[in-house]
Amino acid sequence: MRHLTVRQQQLLYLLADGEFHSGEQIGQQLAISRAAISQQIKQLKPLGLDIYSVTGRGYRLAQPLELLDATQLAACGVDNVHCIAVIDSTNQYMMSRLGSWQQGECVLAECQTAGRGRRGRAWVSPFGGQVIMSLYWRLEQGMAAAMGLSLVVGIALAEALQQHGYEEIGLKWPNDLYGRGQKLAGILVEMAATAGGACQLVIGVGLNLAMPIQIADQIGQPWTSLTALGDRPVQRNRLTAELILRLRACLQQFEASGLAPFVERWNRLDIYRDQPVRLLLGEREITGIARGIDAQGALLLEQEGDVTPYIGGEISLRPMLT
Ligand code: ATP
Fold first, then answer.
1. Are residues 178 and 212 in the same domain?
2. Pick the catalytic residue: 118, 138, 238, 278?
3. Which terminus in the chain has less CB density within 10 A, N or C?
4. Last residue of a domain, one of 267, 290, 306
5. What is the pLDDT of residues 96-108, one digit of tens each?
6. For the whole model, what pTM was predicted?
7. Is the CB of 219 under 6 A from ligand 1?
């Protein structure tokens, strides 16, 4: 893990309002020289921060930044969270410390330097531009139930966002969030078995809020953000709190009742329901019509009138090429 220096944090708090701050003013407030300010700014930029410097006016962030704050989250009813500025990967951090977390405990970060997706793919997570979090969950039912749980995570997040006013949110099997056909959030569930048969899960979420424009070409597929989908700035702490509360509640419901209460909810959010799709299974590709999920969370694919369930972490779903 890499921490921001105290100076860098102070500088960020000053710039967070999105207004211009002159070199003179920053220098006075932080008791550092002009040269030191420019040095600190240089070190912050590679984290994905859009910082402008304009001669005669000073420095400003391209957009205001609401930093994550455990006190504000607690005021929204969320406990047991850790806010970290810069980290390689929140999932990596939690996975390497399994055994030290309580049920539902969360690690949040402003920025990941090595965020990851499925099968070693990279997840781009610039400073302050997302909700980046990992949540620990111990599942007594063991690994066999983990597939269902991963679908529940997508449902929880999508429903929380819909309740927040973002109505055009949908899910791509198994659990990616989409907005107007573009990727909005990724979910990565990693797990380890315990000797007693239970399963320890780290549920990672990266949700785009307001992303700096210069990272656009680092993402190899069409993507979107809540700022692009909505018509108002996102209240980051409030939204994060709602996502965590909904996630914890849905995971509890899943433990008590399994996937049954979620199947119809998932199918309602399914962006490919009744659409022609391709399934990528390693080297193999099959095509058919997507028919939602079954009670185990398997994707149902219809081919020539027969419906077959497909399940497993190695399967990727794609729209049919036109
Ligand atoms: P699959 O259907 O197999 O899950 P996927 O492309 O959605 O395929 P993931 O592992 O879920 O793969 O996510 C990683 C991919 O997401 C990256 O390869 C990249 O294309 C995309 N990506 C990376 N960062 C972002 C981001 N911040 N926002 C949207 N998409 C991103």
1. yes
2. 118
3. C
4. 267
5. 999 999 999 999 9
6. 0.93
7. yes
